[in-house]
Structure formats: structure tokens, C-alpha cells
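pinned: reference chain
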Amino acid sequence: KVEPFIKSYQVNIQEFEKTPEQYKSFDDFFTRKLIPTSRACEGDLIIPADGRYQILESIDKDLIFDIKGSFMNLKKLTKSNKLADRYAGGSLVIARLAPPDYHRFHFPCTGTASTPKRLRGPLFSVNPRALKTRPRILVKNKRMLSEIDSPIYGKILFIEVGATCVGTIHQTFYDR
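pinned: its C-alpha cells
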């Protein structure tokens, strides 16, 4: 299934650490590692994943964003009044990965990450068609919350949302 998928979605195999035939499963392929030179990480703040992005400069506690007329509440997204209060007034960046994307997220800046908080939930699809008809998926799906204490940007809340077939969220840490 891996090689036909690569051809169908025109995935760039030059970025892979392994050759397509070396992947033991579709999951192994989706969580593939890239060669170190495939993504340049220059600057203090990076885009943390391949994907499609929506960026909002300012959010408030009660209304963070509108998807097709359905409003998402920061408290529901985080399941925490404390976190909703702390990040009200901040900016929001939403990344949605599509099937051909490299399925790993990276923290967007240097800093110290908190112990991740797991929020249990189902694994509904987050494709555009699903989000158009059921945008509340983002506040229901399994997700992981981490706070990053950045020496440059202060506190940053990083939320990873699981989806159908890619519900495993595993974080790895390293020093540069």
C-alpha cells in the first residue's frame, strides 16, 4: 500500500530516511523520519509541521475561531478554565495535516516543555469535508496539551489533535 500511496499523492521520497520498500507497515510510513537536511530550521519560531494553516492574530477566552458558522471555545479545546484564562488574548495557529504530509509535529520554538496532558476522546476524521459538517470534532477528538516555556516568547500552548488512522501522539525530545 505504501508505494501506490506515494505515487497517488506524489510524496517526495527524496526526503525519507528509508526507501519505500523498507517500511514495515502503513503506520511506519506515516510516522517516517526525514533526512536531517530536508527541513531547514532557521530562526527563533518555526512552522511545526507540514500542513495547511490558519492563523489568527488574537483570540479571546470565549470565542477563538469560526469554522463555517460554528464557534470553538478555548475552554472546551483545553478542558481548563485556567488555560483558557492564561491564553486569552494570544494568537492561534492551526495546522491540519493531509494524507501525503510528513506526520510528525515539532515544537515551534526553543524552550522547556511541560509534561504533556492527555485529553481522551474519539478519533474522528479532520478532513475539510468532516470539519465543514462537524467542526466541533476539534474539541472532541483525542488531544495532547503541552506548555512550552520559551525564553523568547514566554508561555506557548501546543495542542496536538488526533484523527482517524493517526491517533497515536508520541512526543520525543532532544537538545540541539
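why pinned: Strands lie at 52-56, 65-67, 70-72, 92-96, 112-113, 117-119, 143-150, 154-161. Residues 2-9 form the longest helix (8 residues).
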